[in-house]
């Protein structure tokens, strides 16, 4: 029998190795400040997106870029190309670069540049946040709006002021924590349907995030606090397919619009050409893209945007211990289409839309 004198079993931090303090959001933002140009890029693009979401602007949103950012230099090269392309199509399309720093994994794997910027399991989150913010500032300076997935509920304090549109991923759309976070974000937020293909979780997320919430978070000084939000009215659905198959075809879009209407939500959405809509094969993204563009050209105005996973070069590569083997401009997460195909898909769609 145990007595009180016996050494106690540890009851705290049983599975915690250690914890490392981070710079406060305010400090990082003071070191890496928004210029007037960046503020203008973010402010104006958020307004453009809202006008598209409310039907005042008929242009098509295109969220396009790498599955994940792992090399800021390649990301800047991509951004410069995309900015040039954007100016050729901006009468009918509004291009936004995917700048995804946080990757939700099905089980385990590299969790993105913020979590592990050196790609070597050292998890230097402090550098990850700095590199992410610096890159967003560089892209904003180029005049290109950015989209990202908000995964860690603390990250927005460090980078949200340089993001034009956010998404909540298929793995977290059902999470109350992410819905609360979205209710306080300052930019429009897209909710992916669930990995099983369910629309319910995304519709419920949109309804939940429209409402005010009070929850735990950190403030600009990094102090834990209660955050009281007003609710974010700029939610929208993103169709990404699911285990049951893709959901970009005519009948799926009709069903999605009907479901949105019956939930009292605006019947419009973005279609993700990748993930389960492409069966995670980059060669299928163009098929999905062309199908959805043709539906839009035929008059389906419930389609307000598309998403493409695209990089400088096609496909993907494995992340191994030997980082010298990494090919420049190739994804280390999901497969992407290359720049040439990206440009061709966008220019062809522009002609059709015109
Ligand atoms: O977009 C990226 C991936 O689809 C997502 O992070 C899940 O990846 P995984 O299934 O390879 O973990
Ligand atoms: C992880 C992503 O997508 P999903 O949540 O749809 O799997 C993504 O867009 O990077």
Automatic annotation (TrEMBL):
Pathway, per record: Metabolic intermediate biosynthesis; chorismate biosynthesis; chorismate from D-erythrose 4-phosphate and phosphoenolpyruvate: step 1/7
Keywords: Amino-acid biosynthesis, Aromatic amino acid biosynthesis, Transferase
Domain spans labelled DAHP synthetase I/KDSA: 51-344
Listed Gene3D superfamilies: Aldolase class I
EC number: 2.5.1.54
Annotated function: Stereospecific condensation of phosphoenolpyruvate (PEP) and D-erythrose-4-phosphate (E4P) giving rise to 3-deoxy-D-arabino-heptulosonate-7-phosphate (DAHP).
Protein name, entry field: Phospho-2-dehydro-3-deoxyheptonate aldolase
Gene source species: Gimesia aquarii
Encoding gene, per UniProt annotation: aroF_2
């Amino acid at each position: 029998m145990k007595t009180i004198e016996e050494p106690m079993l540890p009851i705290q931090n049983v599975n915690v190795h250690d914890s490392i303090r981070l710079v406060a959001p305010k400090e990082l933002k003071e070191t890496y400040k928004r210029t007037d140009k960046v503020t203008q890029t973010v402010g104006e693009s958020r307004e453009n997106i809202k006008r598209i979401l409310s039907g005042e602007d008929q242009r098509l949103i295109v969220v396009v870029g790498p599955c994940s950012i792992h090399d800021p230099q390649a990301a800047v090269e991509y951004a410069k190309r995309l900015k040039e392309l954007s100016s050729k199509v901006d009468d009918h399309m509004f291009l936004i670069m995917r700048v995804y720093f946080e990757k939700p994994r099905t089980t385990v794997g590299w969790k993105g540049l913020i979590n592990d910027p050196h790609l070597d399991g050292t998890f230097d989150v402090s550098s990850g946040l700095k590199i992410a913010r610096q890159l967003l500032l560089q892209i904003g300076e180029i005049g290109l709006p950015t989209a990202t997935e908000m995964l860690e509920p603390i990250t927005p304090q460090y980078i949200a002021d340089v993001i034009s549109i956010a998404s909540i991923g298929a793995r977290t759309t059902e999470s109350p924590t992410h819905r609360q976070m979205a209710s306080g974000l300052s930019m429009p937020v897209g909710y992916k349907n669930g990995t099983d293909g369910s629309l319910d979780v995304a519709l419920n997320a949109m309804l939940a995030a429209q409402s005010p919430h009070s929850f735990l978070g950190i403030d600009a000084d990094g102090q834990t606090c209660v955050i009281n939000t007003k609710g974010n009215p700029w939610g929208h659905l993103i169709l990404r397919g699911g285990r049951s198959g893709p959901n970009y075809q005519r009948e799926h879009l009709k069903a999605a619009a009907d479901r949105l209407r019956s939930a009292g939500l605006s019947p419009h959405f973005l279609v993700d050409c990748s993930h389960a809509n492409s069966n995670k094969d980059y060669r299928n993204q163009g098929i999905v893209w062309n199908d959805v563009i043709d539906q839009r050209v035929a008059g389906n105005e419930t389609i307000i945007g598309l998403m493409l996973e695209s990089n400088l070069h096609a496909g993907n590569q494995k992340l191994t211990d030997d980082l010298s083997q990494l090919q420049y401009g190739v994804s280390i997460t999901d497969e992407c289409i290359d720049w040439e195909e990206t440009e061709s898909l966008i220019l062809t769609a522009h002609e059709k839309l015109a």
